[in-house]
Design a protein that fits this description.
The chain has 542 residues and is mostly helical. It contains 19 helices and no strands.
């Protein structure tokens, strides 16, 4: 019998569900109501896309938002950070709330709150108001991300779960990729406030679809007794401190900044208390015992690596194109379209590959392809543009999509049904955390390597040789042009060229660093236990 009909709280069917309900041996199986399942799941997927998109949709429009609300350069970065930090608390908490209230009620509450906070963010007249509403938007809307993941592995029959994984994989990969491009065009066509107002019509469609068709399970009100408030507090302290350190550490020279140092200590202590509490309390918020499952543990690690590869690649390329090539938001979006197209076209093929083989093989192949795509850019030059990055993006996009779908199958396929909801929150948390760690490492690498390469080139100029000859020739040229301070102008021009070259070389190192991480993950992925894919449905199945 399929476990698809068993609610994730393990309590048995309590109401209408799209999957076949448990039945005694010999009893006729209840057919899946595919219309209801696909419409309800489709509405939830749109909401998930909306919530993930909002992380990056402001990336290309920060200067306009800064001018609109009168923010300083330091303050405007918090428009993204304020969304991410509270979101990481809701993602694991959503598993408990889903078992308590039921998937539909939690999702509806999350979507309503997300819409309201989107409107208030769009109406913000000060940076303080915007940071507050963005934080609430991220916290409340965070529940829309993992609940879709749980539904894919509980409401769908086993033989259809890979198809659902393909859909989710497309959402998770495409949303952050198209976010900056869509945001840049919305700001150009209308205004930056429509980055948030656009959530209203989309959110209303999601609300209607979820309310009408997404009645997949019922909640268990008895879980409210003995709610672990202490566990919630230490989880919030741990996750928010960790996310702040990862988001802001690179900007503040890490432990040279006292706030980053103390928050790191707080995160370590809070993390220890959180793990102890969840393993000892009778009604834990997060079920950490899922990590006793070997495939789940390997899958969570691989999900973190795929998150680093996904968000890292999406971070490096726009940064390079903006800082070195000085591309506009629309030009960056045009260049990045190869990545989105390759992921979109690979999704159905990856699903078929994972379905027909041991998922460990496509997961390994996917990480190898993603790593090779990143390594292709290790020799990047200042002249690289659309065509030079096309192969890099295509190889990385195909690899990330294959690895992500295979990872989802390995992570969730051997878990008992009652652990699915909590496990889905942990999986999404690991993807976000992996992405945050990857971005922090890459940002630090770019800063440090740029400084090292610049110092190395500067010392060669001072020591003489070809660089010194070029400086002398440039000084002479400036004098011929009648520049007031030819030596100073020549030094400034040489310094600019060295800074650009140092930046390009630092980006090459960062692409290599990301490639090494993917290559290591390819071999670690083979440590998972073999997974038997679901048998094909009977010929008369619907």
């Amino acid at each position: 019998m399929s476990d698809a009909a068993i609610p994730a709280d393990g309590s048995g069917p309590k109401g209408p569900a799209p999957a076949a309900a448990a039945a005694p041996p010999g009893a006729p199986q209840v057919e899946t109501n595919w219309t209801k399942l696909m419409l309800g799941f489709g509405a939830m997927v749109i909401g998930q896309f909306m919530a993930i998109l909002d992380i990056q949709i402001v990336a290309a429009s920060l200067p306009q938002i800064q001018a609109g609300v009168g923010a300083s350069t330091d303050q405007v970065s918090w428009i993204q950070t304020a969304y991410l930090i509270p979101e990481v608390v809701m993602i694991p908490l959503s598993g408990y709330l889903s078992r308590l209230w039921g998937t539909q009620r939690l999702y509806l509450a999350s979507c309503v709150g997300f819409i309201v906070m989107s409107v208030l963010t769009g109406l913000s007249s000060s940076i303080d108001m915007m940071i507050l509403t963005r934080a609430l938007q991220g916290f409340i809307g965070g529940a829309m991300i993992p609940t879709v993941f749980a539904v894919a592995f509980t409401a769908f029959p086993p033989e259809k779960r890979i198809t659902a994984s393909v859909v989710m994989g497309l959402i998770v990969t495409l949303a952050p990729t198209v976010g900056p491009t869509l945001g840049g065009h919305l700001t150009e066509w209308l205004s930056w406030r429509w980055l948030f107002f656009i959530n209203v019509p989309t959110g209303l469609i999601v609300l209607f679809g979820v309310a009408r068709w997404a009645d997949f399970d019922k909640g268990d009100p008895s879980l409210s007794k003995g709610f672990d408030w202490f566990g919630l507090a230490v989880m919030a302290i741990f996750l928010m401190s960790m996310q702040f350190v990862l988001e802001e550490g690179a900007k503040d020279d890490w432990f040279d900044d006292s706030l980053i140092l103390w928050l790191t200590v707080t995160a370590v202590i809070g993390g220890g208390l959180f793990i102890w509490r969840q393993l000892t309390y009778r009604n834990p918020i997060v079920e950490l015992r899922a990590f006793a499952n070997r495939n789940f543990t390997v899958g969570v690690v691989m999900t973190a690596v795929s998150g680093a590869s996904l968000f890292g690649g999406t971070f490096l390329l726009p940064q390079f194109l903006g800082r070195v090539r000085h591309y506009s938001a629309s030009e960056v979006g045009t260049t990045m379209i190869i990545s989105g197209l390759s992921m979109f076209l690979t999704g159905p093929i990856a699903g078929r590959l994972v379905r027909k083989t041991d998922p460990r093989l496509p997961m390994c192949i996917g990480f190898l392809m993603a790593g090779w795509g990143m390594y292709m850019a290790h020799g990047v030059t200042k002249d690289w543009g659309f065509w030079e990055f096309a192969g890099v993006q295509a190889c990385r996009g195909v690899g990330v999509m294959i690895a992500m779908i295979a990872t989802q199958q390995i992570t969730m396929s051997t878990l008992p049904p009652h652990m699915i909801k909590n496990a889905s929150g942990l999986v999404n948390l690991s993807r976000n955390t992996g992405g945050a760690i990857g971005l922090a490492l890459l940002a630090t690498s770019i800063t440090q390597q740029t400084a090292l390469y610049y110092d190395d080139m500067s010392s060669k100029v001072m020591a003489g040789g070809n660089a010194a000859s070029m400086l002398a020739g440039l000084t002479q040229r400036m004098a011929q042009l009648g520049v007031a301070d030819p030596a100073g102008a020549a030094r400034k021009a040489i310094s600019g060229m060295m800074q650009q070259q140092a930046t390009v070389m630092a980006f090459g190192d960062s692409f290599t660093l990301l490639a090494i991480g993917c290559f290591v993950a390819a071999f670690v992925s083979l440590l998972a236990a073999p997974v038997k894919n679901a048998p094909p449905p009977p010929s008369d199945a619907h």
